[in-house]
């Protein structure tokens, strides 16, 4: 079975590897163009592009699937296209190229969390269980019928990065199973059912912690935005990056945003009980332990996060 694989970030690499290992004929990889990374903004291939080049697979780099890109895809004569976090819309003309269409591996239990940031939004919302599905890609936003589903429990301290890493591995197995079923003529996709929720791409503002909110909400948000865009707060006009906070229900005497060092710990008041800071990164500096950061404050007892 000839497969076009479309994907860009690191979470898509396990699926590419799994397809190759399972013996599918991956005829080409579609990925987004090289992007500037690091302080020096060096143009760098996407993780999927880098892996495809290691595997000797043809790479098609495109910021969007336009007529030219669609022609490149058609030239590879795929039987099916598998897509995992490519990062762009596939228009009708391109959807029609493979005989079996496009199969999308999506990291949520559709129709929950349709969109670009399903794992992140699930964590922020406090979901106990999430998962992944394979579905037939349509012109609508993640609306197509579902081939297969897997579930994954959300652990108390999971970040979006942790959960995505696990789902990328188990999802790769599901994707191979789905394509095998299609190849054997045994696939039977079912219409989505249930409550629809949306998962738009996160912005920098989604990472800001509002200390008036309850501690549990801040705990969930700080995990959901890690590693990207990252949790942060303001102090004296400067943005401070934060690793996920921990719950401290035993501390109830701090006003929202008020900071208090306690030994090696640094506590912050919220709309309910306190939270404990993870590592802290002040503007222009590296990540540091919270106690080290607090020692550098002139009057830590007067510090209030904005």
Query: How big a fraction of the residues is strand?
Result: 15-25%
Rg calculated over all Cα atoms: 22 Å
- What characteristic shape results from the CA principal axes? elongated
Measured as a percent range, the helix fraction is 25-40%
Order of helices and strands: EHEEEHEHEHEHEEHHEEEEEEEH
Number of helical elements: 8
Provide the spatial order of strands within the biggest beta sheet: 5-2-1-6-7-8-9
Cα(first) to Cα(last) distance is 56 Å
Extract low-pLDDT stretches.
Answer: none
**Major sheet:** 7 strands, mixed
Secondary structure class reads: alpha/beta
Total strands: 16
Mean pLDDT equals 96
Task: Describe the protein's architecture and organization.
- Helices cover 26% and strands 24% of the residues.
- It is an alpha/beta fold.
- Strand 1 (2-7), helix 1 (13-21) and strand 2 (25-31) form a beta-alpha-beta unit.
- The mean pLDDT is 96.
Care to give the gist of this entry?
With 306 residues, this protein is of the alpha/beta class. Helix content is 26%, strand content 24%. The chain is built from 8 helices and 16 strands.
